[in-house]
Amino acid sequence: MERLPELQCSRKFSKIFLIGDSQTQDAFSEQSGWGSIISNHFQRRCDVLNRGLYGYNTRWVKLVLNQLIDEANVEKIAAVVIFLGSNDANSKAVFPQYHVPLTEYKSLLGDMVDYITDLGVSREKIILVSAPPFDEEQWIKTLIANGDAPLSGLDNVTLKLYAEACNEVAAEKEVNSVDLFSEMISKENWKKYVCDDGLHLAKEGGKLLAEMLIQKLDKICEKHTTWFPHCDSIDNENPTPSFGL
Questions:
Q1: Collapsed DSSP state (helix, strand, coil) of residue 97
Q2: Which active-site residues does the annotation give?
Q3: What is the pTM of this model?
């Protein structure tokens, strides 16, 4: 039997990083699935890495960002998606542990973009996603069911301000933006895009976000080709040259 050349398993596949809070941590769940849709779209082209952190705000994500992305993994970054704001927008009076003032939220997002670009990631590879609207009635029902006080701590007027701030940072830093808040709230029956807990994205919301991101990512990742030859192009009698070995 012919012995194939010994090669180090060192192929560095291009990576799309998804960074955020529980909206991102749940990106591969059956509930929203937006990360799964993106991963499927880029199969054999880019690995999609989920770095969502449940309950985190921009203040906490910034503190651990250098443990998510650093010099060791920056070389093959195809894109970075940052999706934060839902926790930051909470009322300080109701959920002080999550609340981040609007001006600080903007500053932290900008600092995160600066950190990533300082590592050598070009600005066109970064996408900021605004927090979506939420269904207050359903969210209060969830709080009551969990034994919490029926105080939502959120409102869509405030969430809109954080969404606008996210868009402003993207414009100031010259990176891509996805205005999920405006896109969802413009829908006639937008609440169907929010899951039963009133806060997180439902399957419809996840699909919408994935479609919006893929429009950006297709342009960003257009040079990232499919790994390895298509099965139909492999010479069954002499397959080795088909793999460039």
A1: coil
A2: 22, 197, 200
A3: 0.91
